[in-house]
Amino acid sequence: MDPTRRRYIGDFQSEHLPKDLANCASIYCDTGLICVGDGSFNPKLGRGSHAWVLSHLADNHRLTGVGPADGNPATMSSYRPELHSILAILITLNAIRNSYNIPPGASVLLVCDNESATIEVGKIVANPFYALDPQQTDCDLLLEIQGELQLSTSTFTVQWIRGHQEDHAAIESLCLLSKLNINCDERAKAYLRAHQYVHQPPPVILSCERWGAVSSGQKITTNILEVIHEQYTEPFSIAYLEKKFKWGATTTQQIAWLSLKYAKTALPLPRNVFVAKVMFDKLPVADRLNFFDSAESPLCRCCNRKTETQHHLFQCRDKRCRSHRLQSWIQHTKVILTSGHTSRIIMDAIDVNVRTYLKLPDRQTKWQSSQGHRSVFAAVQCAIADQGRIGWDKFLQGFISTRWEAAQMLYQELSGDYPEKTPRSWTAVLLPNLWNFSHAIWMYRNEVRHGVTAAEQAANSRARVVTLVTDRYNHRPHLDAKYAWLYKAPLAKLLLQGNRALYAWLNSVNNLSSISSGPKQSTLHSHLFCRLSDEAMGRLRRPRRLRRLFPTSVSTSKARRRGKHILGSSLPTSSRLITNMWNLSVKCLPIPLVKARPRKLFKRSVRSHDIRKMFDRGRRKRIMT
Length: 625
What we know:
Helices cover 50% and strands 9% of the residues. The chain is built from 25 helices and ten strands.
């Protein structure tokens, strides 16, 4: 057998393998087989295993096996080990059929507790030539399952069964399929615990798969387009982050990008958008609003002293703002401690440094009263140093060092303080709580700025439109005479109108001022005139042939730049005679006329010729006529 197929089957757990194979073959021929498979997955390690069993309705004989579930640790889920168990069962059945001459039409019942795997395998069983989408999750295993089903001559039936029924009922009261599923689950977990640190072989392109994408030594089996896009844009994204946040080349490698991805993709869309703005300093704070609209005040509404930036949002010195920030941080630290089973040494390190950034007082009593494990303390010190290079403001935004995860894993191994349901990573539990804290700060800012109740919000909205109208009325833009009716009513009477009418008035002023002609050019009376001297007048009226005989005070280089004559200036024309006779010192400079931008012409080339034909709208009409 092919080594790759043999690895997918795993290890046979049988003391008398030839005898058990013969018994299974006889049951396979007579009454058919019950095949149950299950998988186990460790989200922290990204490793999985599978177990399977071939049995009879009377449960007289069993053939069991267990093996690894190979895959990319970054994208693996519990779905892939379940498919591994089904694939192992089908490979074993085809091997038994070839060795013992099983007649066509033998019945096989495939049982699995993963509903998604049951649905996909059921589609293939119903139609062995079902067209699979290469972009769907773990398509490589589904293609192998489809190939094995096409080679088999048996009649398959797929059934889903609820998993972990032993948590709600006694094992003795369960049916045979549930007992077999529990047995497979226990054997898969035991195999994974014993082989969790065994090195995985390099990825292999399977026979029915025909092609595959390999990146960073791992085969891409999930979200293939997204992963390829990330690999293509990764260097540009890293360069952008290093330039924006002034990070070094090694700093970006210390951030837990994978946990950041897990935590961010699990958020609902509105919160995901908010988190993206927080991470890249794009929150619509007053300073940013003032950049786009000068009518917006850049000052903080809480303290009314400093410019409201995103950093100031977390460091405002206002008494009420600090009190709300302190209460919110205390609330979220308690959630971080309990939900993630976080080490108290880690909590002390995070609490002290974050309070320093938030301009909050220190905690009176530390989270860790005793000394604790020295190895955990050393790991936490390394994490503090790495986070200092990244930035503690970036810690609240979601850019967290990978050493925090290593310190937490070390603490759990030494203390055994594991949560009941193992999360994908501890950092993925920490990040949503930090983003919830940032969201609480932002919501408080919006309450101060816009009000809490409907009456406060209406009063703030009215005050804003009154301020805009008053400013526009006192600082009027240029309008043509025919639009003077906009300012016919006095300001007091104008402000008696509603918000909608005032906004309509502001839009009318802006639109009509944009189409009005500019201010008029300065007239002739706005200039000062000085009479030229007699010598200058004589030089101006002197014939051209005599002008060379009388030197002027103008240097030769300047004269060359001014005209083609070495001495003096060229003879003025009749249109320029008056202006050349007088020295004009302008009071106000005339507004220069903006030259029209020349039309862009396409270069004469093969490509530009095609573009010219594309934009030539009359070409089709000329061809038709």
